[in-house]
Amino acid sequence: MAEKKGVALGEKLNLVNLAGYQDGAVVSRTVIDKPVGTITAFAFDAGEGLSEHTAPYDAFVQVLDGEAEINIDGTAHNVAAGEIIIMPANKPHSLRAVKPFKMLLVMIRA
């Protein structure tokens, strides 16, 4: 079994369990990190989040568990398990976990 960055290659994984909740923290785990893009699992305790920032690439977010408010260019979006949202490149965005929240972030650099 090959392993890179703590993720077993060629083995099945449970997306929801890739990053675990920690009190008062944001936890991330890189799944894939390649020159063409990244896939990262995140777990946010309730009330935790990411401050407003921009990225030069579109960011695909798949909500795995919980609920969050994601602000994109001044518009708030409530997202919950099973939903996706795409944060456009070069638009300011931020997020805050309404309750404990897990997401898979896919960034493709193109």
TrEMBL record:
Pfam families: Cupin_2 (PF07883). Residues 44-106 form the Cupin type-2 domain. InterPro entries: Cupin_2, RmlC-like_jellyroll, RmlC_Cupin_sf. This is Cupin type-2 domain-containing protein.
